[in-house]
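Hi Y.,

Following your request, here is the sequence exactly as I used it, all 516 residues.
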Amino acid sequence: MSSAAIEQSLKVEQSKPAKTLWTKHLRLLGLTVVAIVILFWRDGLAMLDAWWNVSTYNHCLLIAPIIIWLVQQRRDELVKITPTIWAPGLLWVGIAAGGWLLGEAAGVSFARQLGLVMMLQGAVITLLGPKVARGLIFPLFYSFFLVPFGEEFVPFLQTVTAKMSMIFLGWANIPAFIDGVFISTPTGYFEVAEACSGVKFLIAMVAYGALVSNLCFQSWQRRTAFMIAAIAVPILANGIRAFGTIYIAHHTTTDFATGFDHIFYGWFFFAFVLALVMAIGWPFFDRKIEEPMIDGEAIEQRTSVPSKLTPKVAMILIAGIIAAPVLWTSALAAQSSPVPDKIVLPTIAGWERIDYQPRFDWKPRFDGANHQLLGRYRNAPSGAEVDLAIAVYDRQEDGREIVGYGQGAFDPGSEWSWSRNLPAPASGKAIQITAPGPVVRDVQTFYRVGDKLTGSGSTVKIETLKSKLLGGNQQAVAILISAEKVDEAGPTANMAAFREALGPIDKLADEMAGLR
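Below is the corresponding structure, written out as tokens. Let me know if you'd prefer a different format.
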């Protein structure tokens, strides 16, 4: 037998134990992944629903296949690494479980879904070891893009787009006036709506930019510069898009500009932007196509602290860590938090109840509330009219959060749109919303959770979290005071007078929840 044949035979014999070891660890990992997915199936299903039904997150449908492809890219080098059980990986599982618990308690779906993804990451780190995790560092990082996020940036991006449009309109010598996210020109009245904020393309570009940065660059400086371009260029392009629509409308008609925007910009403009970002980065690519993504032999030679955990003990610990938050929240959910069977709008001195006849139909959105009331009051001496809305929850849970996307002063699916934030009253928040007409309405919102009266969604989440983790009153109440703008002065003074006549809002909220 030749020396080459003997050497090949030895390599085959040496690879058998490594292959057996990989098979063993991958089986443990597969069992753990299945257990996690089954235990947290609601969050997994919610993610799938968002990917499929929410256009902002349609790109997430590609993330899982991309991760599989990224792992496949590294396969030949990964097999050179010896998988091990690694106890410190349990810390990541614990952080993930704690994050899920906080998300479940506060009613934050993002935190629950992020916790689910991190638990899966922690299982990989624990059951395959630090060396394999090092080889999979980018696929593990890229899995964060499975979590739907970004809708919270919509108001900010709407404002940025509107302000950029105003700058470009000034350069084009087109007279324009801006009111929040609404722009008036001699041609018409334009809204930088949520769909025009550019958030969909921006989120997808961030995911795409991260992928290209890993595949095409080695230098961290070049990666950072490319990511900045992947964020900045789409934001700038969206401002140009909004300006272009108004510019075309100014020189033609609004209907023509709208149709042109949907066809040209929707299908071609952002494809051009994607190509532009790639063209900017192309000359600076510094990774060769045939170059392996990782060096398995170099990673294998790195020293690491051996773990004394056996596979059986590791599996038991993982099971205990991921089950603990589910058991804890289930126990607290069994606590009773009743609300009255029936509630009515209060009688307010100096104000009489009248038929609710708005100029444009308005109703706050509070999905899953036990009670919702809406009525209109008139002050006899002044003739001022103010609306009062109340929503009462006996407890908050998945799909029944008092604060969340789409919940609150207006339904994003309606024809009402956020226009601007207004100076907030004490312990509340205020916004201006606009409907076709235009009909402008100011809305002041107050939330009562536990013993806290606030207008902050973050404070609501924190107070909800405290009550769910530590026990206490689970009831939550939203009180909204609103009025239409009927003159240049606006309804601020009338709403302030109504709020003063209404009395302490925390007392009213507690009465509505049956706590007084």
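The radius of gyration is 28 Å.

Thanks again,
Q.
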